[in-house]
């Protein structure tokens, strides 16, 4: 295979893995959009604010109790499986499940003990203690589910993993909505509990459908301590960043709730709902394959940096037109996906849509530190600096500019992230964005800026004409760019031949 063929193959692997998990994520988005519309209608902005505070609190506790086991377990199980040692693999899977059960119990107890404090921090009163007491059950089952997802990912069961990833969205739509309809705001926590139980039951069903050798071995306490200690030690650094990120999100929503109103929290949550889930879909789909691939070749500097640049090109080609479409259709999206009550978030959506492009640029570069296991970089730059900067910037913009300031802060924070990532990855790892990436970035940012600036034009017809022209140009450019990198014609011919062979 020559160099050109190898490059094309690498791009295809990136897009192929994205397609597998992107399909599942797309289903999640469709169901979440329908659910979001119904939730906005049933609970209104105040109910969405309460739900956001409870979900952020639960997410913070879950990340804290997991101690990074779900992150480091994927790497550990994958390495053991690659070695082909069946008994060791069986023991590793059992050990991870024991650690996850302990983490679930820790999350449940933590929620029970600190429910008065969380009620006070979230709502400024202890009148919501009962909700947090019930929330402990949701925390328990969600932590158990996260652990089983890590086991399946480590065992490379991607089809089952993709299927199970849509279960929460299905539960959210088919289970939660009827509860909200009959119970209103009082049904938020019961819906979270029922959805968590169903989610865990589905994941456990698929996760335990495994070769019999994985059921035979029971690891000794010494083995659990030795390997488990290693998993937790590696995961602690990873999870510290996740926990701090969850705390930052929780603190930010609490800040908005106390400085402004619960309705503002609902508006902010709704803006995130519209903007970030599209981008998160791409990131989640890509990271499932990109992270282990990069980890495997991280010792080969040239190849690793080439993979990062290739990933950057693909993510820019996919995310940029999505972000511009979001800006173009923001008022319509708000009306369709939410209600006209949420039209005040239109400016936030514009700014968050543009911020998504900068997040896409940071995404591949940030994984270099994780692939290298650079604990200091992850701790001080990704965790401490990143979260402190995010909270400070967005909180300040909200304090001075009100609701629209949440959008200003999101864009400013994303731009700072890009500058820091480019400078530090070059200084610490010798990584540089390639010339093709820089050329692509210039074109994409120019088109995105034109679309974004057109939102400020008072003439509606002229504004939408410019946004439509810029977005259409970007979509065409992205399709041409993907075709040049993937050779879509060759893929279509291969699929056609395969279809004829099956007839």
Task: Characterize the structure shown.
- The model has no long low-confidence stretch (mean pLDDT 84).
- This protein has helices spanning 3-66, 69-83, 86-113, 115-123, 129-154, 158-164, 167-183, 188-207, 221-259, 262-297, 301-328, 330-337, 346-372, 375-401, 405-429, 435-453, 460-486, 488-502.
- The two termini are 31 Å apart.
- α1 (3-66) packs across α10 (262-297) and α13 runs parallel beside α15.
- The chain has 503 residues and is mainly α.
N-to-C series of helices and strands: HHHHHHHHHHHHHHHHHH
Low-confidence stretches at least 5 residues in length (pLDDT < 50)? none
Structural class by sheet pairing and helices: mainly alpha
Proportion of residues in β-strands: under 5%
Helix percent reads over 70%
The number of distinct β-strands equals 0
Largest sheet: none
Q: What average pLDDT do the residues reach?
A: 84
Report the principal-axis shape: globular
Short characterization:
With 503 residues, this protein is mainly alpha-helical.
What descriptive keywords fit this protein?
single chain, 503 residues, mainly alpha
Write the layout of secondary structure elements.
Elements: H1 3-66, H2 69-83, H3 86-113, H4 115-123, H5 129-154, H6 158-164, H7 167-183, H8 188-207, H9 221-259, H10 262-297, H11 301-328, H12 330-337, H13 346-372, H14 375-401, H15 405-429, H16 435-453, H17 460-486, H18 488-502
């Amino acid at each position: 295979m020559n160099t050109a063929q190898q490059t094309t193959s690498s791009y295809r692997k990136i897009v192929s893995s994205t397609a597998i998990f992107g399909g599942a994520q797309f289903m999640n988005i469709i169901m979440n959009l329908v659910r979001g519309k119904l939730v906005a209608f049933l609970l209104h902005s105040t109910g969405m604010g309460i739900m956001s505070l409870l979900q952020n609190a639960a997410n913070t506790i879950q990340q804290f109790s997991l101690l990074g086991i779900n992150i480091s377990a994927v790497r550990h199980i994958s390495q053991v499986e690659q070695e082909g040692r069946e008994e060791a693999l069986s023991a590793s899977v059992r050990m991870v499940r024991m650690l996850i059960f302990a983490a679930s119990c820790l999350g449940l107890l933590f929620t029970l003990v600190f429910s008065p404090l969380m009620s006070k921090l979230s709502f400024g009163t202890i009148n919501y203690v009962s909700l947090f007491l019930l929330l402990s059950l949701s925390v328990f089952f969600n932590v158990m589910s996260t652990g089983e997802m890590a086991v399946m990912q480590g065992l490379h069961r991607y089809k089952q993993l993709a299927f199970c990833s849509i279960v929460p969205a299905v539960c959210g739509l088919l289970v939660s909505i009827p509860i909200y309809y009959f119970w209103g705001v009082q049904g938020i926590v019961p819906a979270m509990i029922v959805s968590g139980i169903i989610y865990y039951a589905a994941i456990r069903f698929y996760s335990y459908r495994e070769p019999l050798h994985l059921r035979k071995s029971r690891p000794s306490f010494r083995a659990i301590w030795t390997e488990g200690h290693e998993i937790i030690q590696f995961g602690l650094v990873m999870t510290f960043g996740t926990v701090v990120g969850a705390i930052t999100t929780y603190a930010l929503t609490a800040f908005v709730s106390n400085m402004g109103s619960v309705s503002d929290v609902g508006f902010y949550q709704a803006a995130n709902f519209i903007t970030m889930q599209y981008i998160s879909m791409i990131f989640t789909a890509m990271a499932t394959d990109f992270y282990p691939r990069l980890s495997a070749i991280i010792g080969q500097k040239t190849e690793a940096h080439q993979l990062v640049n290739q990933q950057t090109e693909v993510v820019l080609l996919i995310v940029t037109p999505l972000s511009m479409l979001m800006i173009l259709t923001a008022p319509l999206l708000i009306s369709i996906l939410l209600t006209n009550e949420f039209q005040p978030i239109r400016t936030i959506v514009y700014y968050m849509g543009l911020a998504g492009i900068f997040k896409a640029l940071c995404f591949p570069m940030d994984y270099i530190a994780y692939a290298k296991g650079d604990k200091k970089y992850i701790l001080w730059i990704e965790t401490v600096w990143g979260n402190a900067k995010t909270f400070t910037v967005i909180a300040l913009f909200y304090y001075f500019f009100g609701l629209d300031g949440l959008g200003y802060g999101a864009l400013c924070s994303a731009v700072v992230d890009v500058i820091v990532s480019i400078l530090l990855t070059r200084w610490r790892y010798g990584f540089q964005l390639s010339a093709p990436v820089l050329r692509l970035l210039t074109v994409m940012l120019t088109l995105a800026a034109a679309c974004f600036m057109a939102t400020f034009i008072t003439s509606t017809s002229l504004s939408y004409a410019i946004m439509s022209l810029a977005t259409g140009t970007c979509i065409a450019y992205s399709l041409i760019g993907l075709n040049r990198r993937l050779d879509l014609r060759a893929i279509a011919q291969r699929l056609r031949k395969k279809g004829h062979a099956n007839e």
